Amino acid sequence: MEKVKTLIIGAGAIGLAIAYELSKYNEDIVVVEKENSFGKHTSSRNSEVIHAGHYYPPGSLKAKLCIEGNKLLYEYLDSHSISHKNTGKILIANCEEEIQLLERYYKWGEENGCPPFTWMSSIDVKNIEPDIFCLKALFIPSSGIFDTHLYMKSLVNNIENNNGYVIYGMEVISIQKENNSYIVGFKNGEYYQCDFVINSAGLWADEIALMLGMDINSLGLNQFLCKGEYYKTTAIKGIKHLVYPVTTPNSIFLGIHLTINLGGEMRFGPNAFYVDKIDYKFQEEYIDEFFKEINRYISVKKDDLIPDDTGIRPKLQGPKDGFKDFYIREESKNGFPGFINLIGMESPGLTASLAIAKYIKSLINEKL
Ligand SMILES: Cc1cc2nc3c(=O)[nH]c(=O)nc-3n(C[C@H](O)[C@H](O)[C@H](O)COP(=O)(O)OP(=O)(O)OC[C@H]3O[C@@H](n4cnc5c(N)ncnc54)[C@H](O)[C@@H]3O)c2cc1C
Fold first, then answer.
1. Which among 198, 234, 288, 286 has a CA at the least distance from the CA of 11?
2. Ligand 1 center from residue 40 Cα (angstroms)
3. 254 CB under 6 A from ligand 1?
């Protein structure tokens, strides 16, 4: 049986960021991934937006880790020459109720420590984005876009340069606590003995906690799968900023927004609906919802909307729930010292990844 000090389950952006951080301290790090490469799930099926941190209630982990992660991510992308752009975001309101929501996010931005936002009139918005219509808006300067594939690839390179390992085709199927360590079993028949296990399995993170023997039902750790679809268009050109409608903090998503990628291509989405299983097939039945929501801030014909990609959010927030924070815990209190769970790692998980990694390092330091 292999002995590994720290095993990380999942080679998505978060698992890789954690492995990169820990590998700086020579901690004998192995990342195991069931697929044949990194980032095959949520980390490559998203908006690739670097969020600013105003959407999350002050004091929440999402707020803290997003703000810190935003800075760390820009620094990392700069220092590793990974394509990115600090586009800024226009958060728009089209009625009085929505203006009140903008006011709330303005306050949360201040309280959470975001770089200052600027109020914009509809004319200010027209001056920088002539196609967009709204009543009022907030300009959020620290939002941006980046190449998530190159980011993950760079993390893998850095982990390997620091003598860590990322091993593919290794599906965890059992976890047994034995004295002060964990015996992790794989589908291929191998077993690893580990001092620390970090569950960063994204959409399967609750199943991993269940495998360990945690009572995820009574702990409220069942993840809900919430799918989102994107449509792209080539009918409009020249948009330079991210444009987001405003939604309430209890909403299950950020509204059908407009993003651009680093090549300047435009897409709309994601929408949000709960599903029973992980299936990325494009469903197309929500096109009317897209058409209606998009045309509240930009004129687009239905025929110009082309189905693009889909992704699935691992949410702790069920259909009837309000805001839920990330669950990131070292599980001594539940009887599993040295086991760290990351559950409900939806947005802003990418933005926050490097800050999450530092947070995990601090949880491990407390146990040493
Ligand atoms: C539609 C959508 C849009 C989003 N937009 C943004 C955005 O613009 N900005 C932002 O900051 N965040 C965004 N997010 C959130 C962000 O994408 C996620 O928070 C982040 O990618 C999660 O990373 P992860 O490493 O936890 O999960 P994943 O990328 O899913 O990685 C988990 C890995 O664990 C592996 N795994 C699972 N089970 C096992 C097992 N038993 N054995 C071995 N390996 C296993 C999986 O194969 C997978 O590779 C978005 C999410 C969605 C769905």
1. 198
2. 8
3. no
